[in-house]
Every structure is written in structure tokens, then in C-alpha cells.
Amino acid sequence: MLKKNLLKKNLLGATGIEVSAIGLGSVKFGRNQQVNYPQAFALPTDNEIVDLLAHARALGINLLDTAPAYGTSEERLGRLLGKTRADWVICTKVGEEFIDGKSAFDFSKTATVASIERSLRRLGTDYLDIVLVHSNGEDKKIIEADEIFATLSSLKAAGKIRAYGMSTKTVEGGLLTLELADIVMVMHNPVYTDEQAVIEYAHKKNKGVLIKKALASGHLNKIPSKDPVLDALKFIFQAPGVSSVIMGTLNPSHLTRNIECARLALS
Predict the structure, then answer these.
(1) pLDDT for 99
(2) Which residues pair with 19 in a beta bridge?
(3) Hey, which residues does 226 pair with through a beta bridge?
(4) N or C end of the chain: smaller count of CB under 10 Å?
(5) Does residue 235 carry a pLDDT above 50?
(6) pLDDT tens digits for range 76-119
């Protein structure tokens, strides 16, 4: 039986924000179309989300990852977190939306400011802990041509966000993000290591690192392993500088197992 709050917490670079080594991803709270998972799933009920959030907190998780592109995830979290909002570090995103079954991207200043204001309303809060740019793959263009970090910096100065960065898709974009922002989110797991140089540079620069797709969206069966989750987390946490690994599930037992593996990987 897990004791409460034994999950390790890490500082997110130099932001002053402390996050649990495992964060709870919430794609499945609001979207089940055009998602890269091995099996189809139904969206959870409000009660199921409330129970899962309570279970996550009891296991020591304090980081929630959401996005406008995750369907109704933001609205549902805003409604269901209620008075517990202060217990959570909320990470949301800008740049991508999911409309009529398709992704749409807009990284302009007008769209970014509007997205932040909408996320604040949806989440029922007056500040966002972390905001990441939801890249379409053109990381360098987004940073340089759209000057999106300048927009996010002004929103940070206004007190609407505490830290910002990008969920990148290229090594070049990850390295550039680390020069101009607080945090980077990269994909890293035993079957995909292309962005390891970004993690190493973030550690050198004392910037926050969030890991996405740690379990390759459920496709880790490509590598021989008796315990793919444990082996993946051991692999990821051996890299200095990793702040938190975002893992999404709707199953409380799976969540418990993920935390057990994280504790073993970190021990």
C-alpha cells in the first residue's frame, strides 16, 4: 500500500514551481477522436474524473496536463476541480485547437492572448501555472516568425501565467526554446531518443523538462521487456534534468501501478 505523498517532487528548472515526478495527462478526459492509442475508449463520467483526481492526489501527483486541443478537458477540469484548484499545478497549451474532428493551428499574438483568456475562464482560475506552445512541427518558424514567446512573456509579466515554453517536435526547436523560455516538453522513451540532446542542454541551462509519450502512446510492446512501464521510467529518469513525466490514464489501478514504477525507478 502506498503511503500518501511519497512520490518525489522536483523543481521545474528555475521557475520555483515544484512538480511531482509523474504528472497526470488529461487528453482522455475530453477527447477520444483522432488519438493514437491502441484501443478505443469512452470518455469518463464526471464522477470517474473526480475519483481519479482524488486518487492521483493521494498518490502524490500535483501536476495536471491539459490543452484546448484535448476537446472538453479544460472545461471539465475547471468544473470538477472546484475549490481544490490551488492544490494543483496546471499546465495547458496554446496554438492548437481540435475543431470538427481536425486540428487547427494559430500562433499569432491575437490567437494566443485569446486562447489564454479562454483557458482561464474554462479552468475557473485567475492564473495558469504553465503554458506550452502546442507545436505543429514547425518549431523554429513558430518561435522566430510568430514571436510567440514575446507574447507569452508579456502575459507572464501581467501575472496571468507563471512559466512558459513549448511542446516541441524537433531538436532545433527544443534547443531554441531553452534559449528563450522556461520549460520544454519533449518526447523521450526507450524506442525514441532523438531529443535526448535537448534534455541534456536543459539540465545544463537549469530549465524545466517535461516528458511526453513516455510509454510511446501504449506502443512499448515493440521492445522486449517483462515490465515495459518500469523499464521506460528507469530509462527516462536516468537522464539528469527530467522534471516530470506526463502519463495519461483513466484507470485508477493503472495510475497506481505507474506511481509504483516511478518510485522504483527513482529509488
Answers:
(1) 85
(2) 10
(3) none
(4) N
(5) yes
(6) 999 999 899 999 999 999 999 988 888 899 999 999 999 999 99
